[in-house]
């Protein structure tokens, strides 16, 4: 079968629309006609970070669409179903069995390497393999091959352009608050980075009626969006040098109960830990710098916790329906963050989100 996909030919290169051949779904696979797909920071970061030998490649991991075909062994998904696609997990290892599907032992192979477990790719061009299977979908394509473990059936009346980002970005931010931190109303929560993930965390904190919610960003447009979701904005660039941590402590009554870092900037993380109250927790969800420096004395003497978090510690099978239910009830107003683009405007969408002109770009096919 033919499909049109946004292909990255090499590290750091732009997305280019190209006609590819896509396999028919195997017995344990699902073919989805993609209707909308979110552009996530991970797509942009990974196309810069991966080595030359892992290209050409199709990214995209926040796909939503309509099932076009299912393999003979697939259960629970049928042709015509509307679905949101998320990350893959084996569902069999001890971590998956314990509910920690984001930490699956097979996570790297299933989500990042670019091919099936037998070494084959789902895409080809002129007889040559094109890497796909990104998060088990590679949904920057009109057609995508997915699996039962990363496909979530949703109601047909759900707007797929709004639902698509729940597959990763919205799930990550909201899940970090609802699952990992699990705050009560008396908590104080600081979100570092007010992009799509950070603002999802803000919205989830407001849904939990957290008393004090701060959003930290250097872009006023992002802080305005955070204010619309119920947070107090803090722009570090407008504060005197060396006063940022004290400002956070002042606004949180002595230090934050918890924080969520979406920036992956080492200096931001270091300051975020310093701004915690004793026994406070910082949850790190950003992908970026591989090393950070922390004050070990502060960490130990004040009983602080710094922990990583994949996909909001969520199981998409239960989390995506829960979050969409909150969205439809008005408790998670994330639709306002979405700006739609045509598929052929993908590079424009990248430029706009990196410049801070939009929060969550979604490509509509």
TrEMBL record:
Residues in Enoyl reductase (ER) domain copies: 12-363
Keyword terms, alphabetized: Metal-binding, NAD, Oxidoreductase, Zinc
One Pfam family per UniProt: ADH_N
SMART domains: PKS_ER
Cofactor(s) needed: Zn(2+)
Claim: Oxidoreductase is one of the keywords in the record: yes
Keyword NAD: yes
Similarity-based family: Belongs to the zinc-containing alcohol dehydrogenase family.
The name this protein goes by in its record: NAD(P)-dependent alcohol dehydrogenase
Organism field: Dietzia aurantiaca
